[in-house]
Amino acid sequence: MTINVTKAYLPPIAEYTAYLEGIWERSWLTNNGPLVQRLEADLSRYLDDTQVQFTSNGTIALQVAIKALDLNGEIITTPFSYVATTTAILWENCTPVFVDIEDRTFCLDATKIEAAITPRTSAILATHVYGYPCDVLAIEDIAHRHNLKVIYDGAHAFGVRVHGRSLLSYGDLSTCSFHATKLFHTVEGGAIVMNDKELARKIWLYKSFGHIGDEYFTIGVNGKNSEFHAAMGLCNLPRVPGFIEQRRALAAIYRQELAGLPLQFPEPTEESLEYNYAYFPVLFDSESRLLRVKEALAAQTVNTRRYFFPSLNQLPYHQGAPCPVSEDASRRALCLPFYQELTADQVRWVSQLVRNYHY
Prior knowledge:
By secondary structure, this protein is α/β, with parallel strands linked by helices. It has helices spanning 13-26, 34-46, 58-68, 83-91, 136-146, 197-206, 227-236, 240-258, 287-299, 324-332, 344-358; strands at 51-55, 74-77, 95-98, 121-127, 149-153, 161-162, 165-166, 173-177, 190-194, 211-212, 215-216, 280-283, 314-315, 318-319, 333-336. The protein is built from 11 helices and 15 strands.
């Protein structure tokens, strides 16, 4: 049996079908339907009464966020993230300025940000890598002193809390991905999270072509999502705490089974962290070792993922300054299979394969 690196949770079909029956009765499929509105309200409560705008995916969430904050010029960002973080900046005709990461959480190194600020810098766009938080207090201080906006790519951060707050409540805006492979998913989807009601209205217009009925207020795109996707979210949201607990137990088994191998694991620096166990990444001592283990696991129908590779400052269509920590991490990082439906025996088996092929 193939073991994939991630697996989308599907709720009981009868539960999802109950929502579908309502959609059929109303014939209201999209355009801010009642299930979308309900999901946004439920997400708002779950995320500490923030303003939440449900979008069609996490990439459009990043693009709309950049547009809504009227950003231009340079945006300081991380080279260790999924490619959408960088391409959203480029797509909005801004310039990514890469700052290296720190070597424990692999998030943007806040101590290196100020050296990269120029008169053209308009914002900081940082990623909470694998759900581990950036130094949100240090970044907030830097942004305040230099009059910069802050966007967090929180694609991995749903369910994480730090300093007693949802991690997604920090910054001017946070964006989420609710793609099928995420801890919380809506099949396809995303969100923009903020604390400003006026900004939320602006984003609502931006994701809805900029108009309400025959009244046109601003430019816009189609960043909306459907009732079908909202229904999946409504099924899955109440289960998130249980998902996290199941993943916590599996992560503990991985740690125990892999103990003694020369592997590096991300380590949180915030004592107040309530983690979501979004992924299970390991860093090998060399790229050649990673490739050997990855190939051997694939031969046993165990899928893994180089997440993230390459370091984004080395993209062929937009290269930035050297970022040695990120470049090194991207060569050595591998995500092992991790989702709540894995069994403890499967985790032990995968761990034993890693141990067998590591040498």
